[in-house]
Amino acid sequence: PAHDPGTYRWLPEASTPVDPDRVQQLLAAEWERFTSTTGASGEHNVRASRTLPLGVTSSFQHWDPYPVSIQSARGAWLTDVDGRRLLDLSMGFGAMLVGHLNPVVVEHVERALHETGTLFVTPSPQATEMSERFCRRFGLDMLRFTNSGTESLMYAIRVARAYTHRKAIVKIEGGYHGGYDGLQVSVKPALADIGPADAPVGDVPFDVEAGTVHVVAYNDLPMLERVLAEHGSYIAAMVVEPVIENLAIVLPDEGYLAGVRALCDQHGVVLIFDEVKTGLTAGPAGAAQRLGVQPDLITLAKSIGGGLPLAAFGGRREVMQVVVDGRMAHFGTYNGSPLVMAAARAVDEI
Structure pTM? Predict the structure, then answer.
């Protein structure tokens, strides 16, 4: 199938496989070069591992023999503890979309630190203004702020359950959506544990209490149609990144997301787009508007906060009404704090 016309990808008509032996030679040479230039990072990891599990603050940051430790950053450049200047090709998975220490973000945040305040735990004009700006930008009726993508996905699912009076969810096999239990199913499962490709079995880690979760393959409408036909009356929500970013970068086929939208409508399932990573990186209004398919709920994080911890969930007024009337309570001491709202306004202006 053709890629969605809202995306772009070019592939050569033919390619020559790389010699596996050559790959191993290159890897060995690169690891030798890595260890010969990152001694201070190795020493820092030994120290950090005494108090931080694996010596890191998030498990994905760890790799063998040890990760690079960064001591400062500016613009698109990082400086590690060995004094090397490194081009940042990740930018925090898009969280640093506007750059490290962007002067506009710094200006707004400094003003909040010196003149406004860091935390009120009350309603504020700053949070109201940013809710209005984000609703305009992303085409939402209402939203609530949170502090992480995990929080936003958790609450979006709870909104969907309160709205539909159903409990089960559907997610994409291999898809990652933060640390909420129900979304830990089949994140990066071993092939031996997940059954046949045309009827996958959800892989649930032992530490997870997932509830009922159905997994389907991305870009496979017939599989989703089968699952909804059999279980649709029990399914509250389908969660999907409109562009999959945990399995490399996987683009939607032409018509796929529109088909997902139609199937969810047919079965009364709340469609949740996880735009934690694609929120601003896929375009100034996110992937949903670029691809022309509007979900019921969208979760946002990373790029909207300019490097400060900010996230949000929001969508159609009818669905978000469950927060208004108390069917689903949403709490959070730091939600919409004026310090983070200052950074969000800077990013929105940029």
Answer: 0.95
CA of 238: how far to CAs of 93, 244, 305, 338, in Å? 23, 14, 26, 33
d(CA 158, CA 69): 37
Average pLDDT over residues 269-290: 96
Q: Give tens-digit pLDDT for 71-124.
A: 999 999 999 999 999 999 999 999 999 999 999 999 999 999 999 999 999 999
Identified catalytic residue from 218, 274, 277, 296: 274
- As a residue count, the chain comes to 350
Across 300-320, average pLDDT = 97
Write the CB contacts of 131 (distance below 8 Å, at least 6 apart in sequence): 142, 143, 145, 336
Q: Is the peptide bond before 123 cis (omega within 30 degrees of 0)?
A: no
The verdict on whether 274 is a catalytic residue reads: yes
Q: Let me know: does 175 contact 218? Beta carbons within 8 Å.
A: yes
For 139-177, b/e burial (b = at least 16 CB within 10 A) is ebebbbbbbbbbbbbbbbbbbbbbbbebebbbbbbbbbb
Residue 63: per-residue pLDDT: 92
Helices 20-37, 39-48: crossing angle, 10 deg rounding:
80
Q: Which residue is catalytic, options 163, 176, 180, 218?
A: 176
234 as an active site residue: the answer is: no
| Per-residue pLDDT tens digits for 17-76 | 999 999 999 999 999 999 999 999 999 999 999 999 999 999 999 999 999 999 999 999
Q: pLDDT at position 8, please?
A: 82
188 is catalytic: no
What the block records as the tokens of 142 is: 């209402």
**Helices marked H in the chain — which ranges?**
20-37, 39-48, 103-111, 125-138, 149-164, 221-231, 256-267, 286-291, 317-324, 338-349
What gap in Å lies between CA 308 and CA 320, rounded to an integer?
25
